[in-house]
Amino acid sequence: MFSALTKAFGDLRDKRLMATLIAIALWSIGLYIVVMIAMFWGLGAADLGLWAEGQLSWLPAEVVNIVATLVAILAFLALFWFSFIIVAQNVAAFYLDGVVARVEAIDYPGLPPAKGSSIANDVTAMLRFTGVLLALNVAALPFYILSLFIPFVTIAIFYLLNGYLFGREYAEVVILRRLPQKEAAAWRKANRTRVWMAGAMIAFAMTIPVLNFLGPVIAAAFMTHIYHAGRRGGAVDNPAAR
After folding, report:
1. Tens of pLDDT along 172-188?
2. Phi and psi (nearest 5°) for 233?
3. 53 and 64 in contact (C-beta within 8 Å)?
4. Which of 109, 174, 182, 197 could form a disulfide with 238 if both were Cys (CB 3.0 to 4.6 A apart)?
5. Planar angle of CA 79, 81, 82, nearest 5 degrees
């Protein structure tokens, strides 16, 4: 697992992958700024603090203030993180097939040609991933709130849930280039623990400032190495492909 992650970071020495990473980061930053402006305007118009006070008027004022503050903090953190993830992942959808192809060319030059994936399929899959990501995290919101007083529980729920989602999504980005749907599902099932752990590491990376800008490219390279780790002969460094 950590060997695959080290190789993924090492692949960033490749000029093409670095150029892709920069393109994704710049597009993501630009769109993220637009999204955040719209989000903050929406939050200001919604006035969640006033809403909380109205809904909890039967409670003591001190309790209402605490709840309103917690709601505001949670809303800000959720919007801050999910907005960037949504923007970055959907921008990356236009590039991920090329990222996986380049990593395979660098480290696994003996592979037969892959059928690849169309941009339309990648974007559709990423939009579906975005919808599931939002739906499941909204469904888990009561657990996040209840576990605010037990931080480790919140962290565990967050990374277990999003680790599964990220692991599944990036595994599909890699393996559906080479396997039909049924075989891809069988591979995921046989490697579900590794895929889940890899997804949790990707989700963790997405919560770290600066590192999250590398997220989609690193995640795609990381999952590519995990998929090919069991192949006979292992990884091959191919300087000629750089």
Report:
1. 889 888 888 888 888 88
2. 95, -20
3. yes
4. 109
5. 65
Residue (of 99, 113, 104) closest to 227 by Cα position:
104
Cα–Cα distance for residue pair 75/70, rounded to 1 Å = 8
| Cα gap 156→162, rounded to integer Å | 10
Per the rule left: phi > 0, alpha: psi between -120 and 50, beta: everything else, 112 is beta
Nearest to 27 by CA among 124, 102, 78, 95: 95
Residue 141 lies in a domain: yes
Q: Is the pTM of this model over 0.85?
A: no
User: How many independent structural domains does the chain possess?
Assistant: 1
Rounded to whole angstroms, the Cα distance separating 21 from 143 reads 35
- CA dist 161 and 183 (Å) reads 24
Measured CA to CA, the distance from residue 7 to residue 154 in angstroms comes to: 31
| Burial (Cβ within 10 Å: 0-12, 13-18, ≥19) of residue 21 | buried
Specify if 231 maps to a domain: yes
